Amino acid sequence: MITTIEKNVFEGEGLARFEGQTVFIKGVIEGEVVEFSIIKKYKNYTKAKLEKIITKSPHRITPKCPLSNCCGGCDFGFIDYDYQAKIKENIIKEIFQNFENVNFLPFIKSPLVYNYRAKTQYPATDTKNSKRVILGYYKEKTHDIINIKYCPIQPEIVDKIIEFIRNNWIFGCYHEKEHKGLLRHVNIRISTTNNDILLTLVLNSKTKPDIKNFTSRIISEFPQIKGVFVNLNPDKTNKITGDKTYLIQGVDYIIQNLGKFRYKLGGNSFFQVNPHCAELLFENAKKLIKNKGNLLDLYGGSGVIGIFMSDSVDKICLVEENEESIALAKENYKLNNIDNFEIINSKAKECIQKFEKEKIMFENIIIDPPRKGADEETLSGISKLTKNIIYISCNPMTLRRDSLFLIQKGFKLKSVQGADMFPNTHHIECIAHFEAGENA
């Protein structure tokens, strides 16, 4: 069966038509003529597999990663970078095409196309007989681990550290089905400011094991590693880390700069995985601040966004439910000599309800919710607390849903701007700007 790809759509697939049916095919580019086979037919569409490229796009390149087909993580790695950015920009415009008078601001490209990923989380296992350690990413839609020795989107030092662990870890690795074995994940965080590294070993254990000899050896081999943690995760769960983390050796944080601001990062801290692009993203978000005044930093984490906005507002109120992030936020404000802030340890919805009840208003509210977006109660509450909302999203579809809700509450979607936080993948970050309408 042969068809022509009409366009690339959300999550990167190519959309085509065949015998009156919409067909979705991975690994293709708009304009290509391809041969395909059917994977599964649904009521309104068909999932298909690429079998052969008959007419190749001029934007198709050879992926830098030799495991790109079986890994699937860099699912845009076969497209030249400028065209990747164009596809993502077009996807955003299509998602928001039915919104009135939206200004689509220029797409923010990543300064780095490769070696940009400052945080790596590799699941671990080992072979049954030889006990050879396997570290890598899960094969798409499976829990089979691909043994990755080279990943072009992360710094080269990560490959070297992983290879050292592969060759020197003697304590056994995790097997998910049996829920047995010690090493579950290896997490590596790098500061792009000074190349300092924090290493976290996630272990299937209720107690802290004695691995000091191993950690001493790896720090000796890689002086860039400033701290090694052990995280205990004995539960049968898909969650990567458990609740208890111990510093085994070295220091418990590294410093990451964004613009003129400095941030302490711990082993489990949330921080954008592409700091180079994050700085551009935040600079553009800052331009949307109106009238200074008080800024509510909702889902504020360790204070990254609020601190970046601090020189454009009079006061920041950070709301975050994670206590570890709260502690780090306090340190980050202190590190940057910022004292015009308040930190509230609370779930977003509960805090917003309290503000609403007490009629506490903000000149600006900035939200950066999880991938699932914000819940309606939270959105409804913030719509009553401000006239200016800046929404940073890692999922354009949940952003679209939440935008429709805010519009129902009297706001206007003024602008949307895409950012490429994850080059060579289909993922898209967005900044959306809302202002209260005349009747809000």
Count of domains: 3
How much strand content do the residues show?
25-35%
Order of strands, main sheet, comes to: 7-22-23-21-20-17-18-19
Structural class: alpha/beta
Low-confidence stretches: none
Provide a brief overview of the structure:
With about 450 residues, the chain is α/β, with parallel strands linked by helices.
Question: Which key features would you list for this structure?
Answer:
440 residues; alpha/beta; OB fold (Dihydrolipoamide Acetyltransferase, E2P)
Your description of this structure?
By secondary structure, this protein is an alpha/beta fold. It folds into three domains: 2-86, OB fold (Dihydrolipoamide Acetyltransferase, E2P); 98-112 and 273-436, Rossmann fold (3-Layer(aba) Sandwich), CATH 3.40.50; 119-257, Beta Barrel (OB fold (Dihydrolipoamide Acetyltransferase, E2P)), CATH 2.40.50.1070. Helices cover 24% and strands 31% of the residues. The chain has helices at residues 68-71, 81-95, 156-168, 212-221, 275-286, 304-309, 323-335, 348-358, 376-382, 396-408; strands spanning 2-4, 7-8, 14-18, 21-25, 33-41, 45-55, 103-104, 119-126, 133-138, 145-147, 183-190, 197-203, 225-232, 244-250, 254-258, 261-265, 294-298, 315-320, 341-345, 364-367, 388-393, 411-419, 429-436. The strands form four sheets. Strands 7-22-23-21-20-17-18-19 form an eight-stranded mixed beta sheet, with helices on both faces. A seven-stranded mixed beta sheet has the order 10-9-8-11-12-13-14. Helix 8 runs parallel beside helix 9.
